[in-house]
Amino acid sequence: MESGEIGRGEDQKTGTGAAAQGGDAWTLPDAMTGRASPAKAAVGDKPVFAYIASLPQPQRGIAEAVDALAAATLPNLQRSVKWGMAYYGVGDGWCFSSGGFAGHVKLMFINGVALEPVPPVTPVGMGKSTRGVELESVDDLDENQIAAWMTQVTSVPGLGGKKTHIPRADESSVPELEADQTVAPRPEEEIADALRAKPDLEDHSAHRVKTPPASGGK
Known about the structure:
alpha+beta; six-stranded antiparallel sheet; two-stranded antiparallel ribbon; elongated
């Protein structure tokens, strides 16, 4: 099911979401102060499509366009609902989110401060390093720029992914040797290393020490 096929016909009033995954209608929040919607946390395409379908217009149309752009830009795209909105990644953590809010959709990039250029919006309650854009209409979606951000942000581990150390500009990318690694090994150490590296296939059974019988035995 493509994002453009997400169900239509629910409440069209801006700011009021239809029931997603059961429950009553809900009001879109102004900012992220807990959860963006009642949608339950779940991994997979269907939960995200259901969340997007629950949004009113124009937020639904914007979220559909973001979803379609992500699918076209990122091979092996993975979807999830977290904190009541859609999250996206490519296998090593969740890298950006798309959520309906009053009057707009927040498209936010985790670790957005590392993107080039840095997205202009610093959201409330979504992490110090998160940056993104607030889209009031589909026309606000700069597909080229947002696709570039999606590609950049998914090149490093996201939320829940494996952490890797990225060297600073003034830091060598080659690990420095420990103090004892700068000293050449002694000859006997080299011989011992060579012996350990060579498998010992010789039969040593003739050299085994025989255990004397227990006292009192015959």
